[in-house]
Amino acid sequence: MSDRTIQDRITLHDSLGVAEFDFSHMTFATEAEVDACYDEIDRRLAATSRQWYFLVIYADCVIVPEVWERFAARGKNTNINYSLGTVRVGTSAATREAIRQQAGRAMFRANIFDSRDQALFAIGEMRKRHEVVGRDAAEVFLRVEDVHLSFGGVKALTGVGFTVNRGEVTSIIGPNGAGKSSMLNVISGFYRPSRGQIIFEGNDRTHLAAHEVARLGFARTFQNIALFKGMTTLDNIMTGRSLKIKSNFLTDALYWGFAQKEEIKHREHVEKIIDFLEIQAIRKTPVGRLPYGLQKRVELARALAMEPKVLLLDEPMAGMNVEEKEDMARFILDVNDQWGTTVILIEHDMGVVMDISNYVVVLDYGVKIAEGTPDEVRADPVVIRAYLGAH
Fold this sequence. Notes:
CATH architecture of the largest domain: 3-Layer(aba) Sandwich
Number of strands: 17
Strand content: 15-25%
Distance between the termini: 55 Å
Strand order of the largest sheet: 13-14-15-10-16-17
């Protein structure tokens, strides 16, 4: 290890609520070194009797492969006990990849940034979201009230109601035919309920058309990939910017002045999304030539290009292998944490749902049978009987 003591590397910025851990130029070669570091961190944090936002500096830090599991386990335990959110700066390529793989397996947010300023800005955004979610406000971010939906004589949804908090991940689960996709279609404006309301930011938007709902800040992906297969990844993502484009047919045809500046601005935003989702290598590839998992990632990128307040994901991990699921779960968590996007997710993989969700709503035959935190839903005997298959 470096000549600096572990105590010197722990700085508590009380006014910011930030605990900074400087691992720069350190080498963790043994489990004893890992334990010595985290023992001191835990001791310092426990003495404060509060929780902190963690800022971890990794510049030129070396963690040998043999101790990675120990390092990750101790770090996870410290986060659970004392952290409101963690950001990481200055990771090497090897450390970045190791953290991201661990994030995928353990379903935590990687939150890796290139600079300290970017990381501190992200912490500021986390703090804003915690303040909003923590308020006992009269106005709920999104409220579904007594929604009924029928197709002829078939009842798809019957009296379904729940709320979604700003900045959280809410999952809707249930067996096939439970009404999950119908519920997502009602929220997105694709279906209009025969009864009930959708209240968003205090306003009734039940009867708005889908494109009007999109303008309010809703974007979604689909069970079946809905991309333009002959177009490149970049061009597919650019279609997600259509609602943000203010030019018209004439200015587009001339491609001069305002139209040119606007396209440059939109392409810069799309390139940020491409970097964020780590799809730089396929930006010029027609999506029809991409494997299934990457097509799903491109579809997510197109939805993010709309800069949504609410991201609706309809089985984003269906058909993926384990590695692809880990990547997608990590990206969903990072979108939620770094960008503050509220996520409503339909997913059949219960391990993923329970690991990444703040709140879970359970449907069965179009009726809500349970809702609550993942732990509450997991233990609910009605859910166990109706969904998880226990008797």
